[in-house]
Amino acid sequence: MRELSLFIDESGSDNLKDRYYLLTLVLHEQDEDISDSIRLYERSLAEKGLPDIPFHASPLLNGHDGYENMEPADRKRLLSSFRVFFRHMPVRYTCITLKTKEHGDLDGMTAAMRKRLVDFLFDKLTYFQDFDVVKIYYDDGQKSVARAIHKAVDYALAKDAVTYRLASSADYRLSQIADYICTMELTALKYADKASTATDEKFFGSWSQFRKGILKEVRAKRV
Predict the structure, then answer these.
(1) Which of 42, 111, 154, 216 is the 20 to 30 Å CA partner of 205?
(2) Mean pLDDT over residues 32-54, rounded?
(3) CA angle at residue 27 from 187 to 115, to 5 degrees?
(4) What is the DSSP letter of 216?
(5) With bands split at pLDDT 50, 70 and 90, how would you rate the model's confidence at 190?
(6) Closest C-alpha to 7, from 95, 80, 79
(7) Which of 45, 28, 36, 4 is nearest to 175 (CA)?
(8) Tell me, what DSSP letter sits at residue 159?
(9) CA-to-CA distance for 150 and 152, rounded, in angstroms?
(10) What confidence tier does 173 reach under pLDDT thresholds 50, 70, 90?
(11) What is the pLDDT of residue 171?
């Protein structure tokens, strides 16, 4: 039986105060083993004396939550270790980007998100139909995203082939990868809009350095 995992993360919130609403979908074919990559990542953290805490990009960059008392140099080392881990993971992704001001209100945003999801699923329908089971992992953090996912997936894919799982970054490395991608795609938008912050430039350098480095690596895995 062939199984596909689809891990989902968002950047933006249902208050629509952010300029962009991003939805990242990470695809992992479950016959592609990831245990060795995870083990090597965890070993590298231990060898470097870094804490093995669930990767969460925005708090890492800004020194919040579990990273609050960590030196910037160690946060950079954590980011670098996760970057290497990501490069070796057998995943693909797509990222849906919506400008909040173009969709009026939350219902409009949810409808637009659903449409973009349906377009993606139908565009790749032959690929999805090659699997016996498609497992959707999302933490239900934003209700608009949860509604859009269910409506799009139930419309495009056979219901008996789809299962939904609650997933948090604390529990799944693939959820952490979705978070990583989402943050890097948002950072690319900020650089392109000339709205990068001092924190962005401290961790990533100039737009050229970011584009030729991390962003190039991330988009090499884009569907």
Answers:
(1) 42
(2) 96
(3) 75
(4) H
(5) very high
(6) 95
(7) 28
(8) G
(9) 6
(10) very high
(11) 86
Residue type, 14: D
Q: What is the mean pLDDT of the chain?
A: 95
Q: Which domain holds residue 163?
A: 3-219
The CATH number of residue 101's host domain is 3.30.420
Report the C-alpha gap between 11 and 72 in whole angstroms: 23
How far is it, in rounded angstroms, from Cα 45 to Cα 125? Answer: 39
The C-alpha atoms of residue 109 and residue 103 are separated, in whole angstroms, by 5
Beta bridge pairs of residue 11: 22
What are the tokens at 221?
């895995």
For 6-44, give the DSSP string: EEEEEES-TT--SSEEEEEEEEEETTS--HHHHHHHHHH
Q: Find tokens 């409506």 and name the residue.
A: 151
**What token pair was written down for 105?**
């209100």
**C-alpha–C-alpha distance, residues 21 and 18, integer Å:** 7
What residues contact 38, with CB distance under 8 A and at least 6 apart? 85, 173
pLDDT tens figures, 118-145: 999 999 999 999 999 999 999 988 889 9
Q: Is the pLDDT of residue 170 over 80?
A: no
Q: Look at the chain and report how many structural domains it folds into.
A: 1
Nearest to 99 by CA among 112, 86, 89, 90: 112
C-alpha 169: how far from chain center: 10
| Average pLDDT of span 17-40 | 96
> Can you name the residues that pair with 98 across neighbouring β-strands?
21
At 99-113, the pLDDT tens digits run 999 998 999 999 999
Q: pTM of the full predicted structure?
A: 0.95
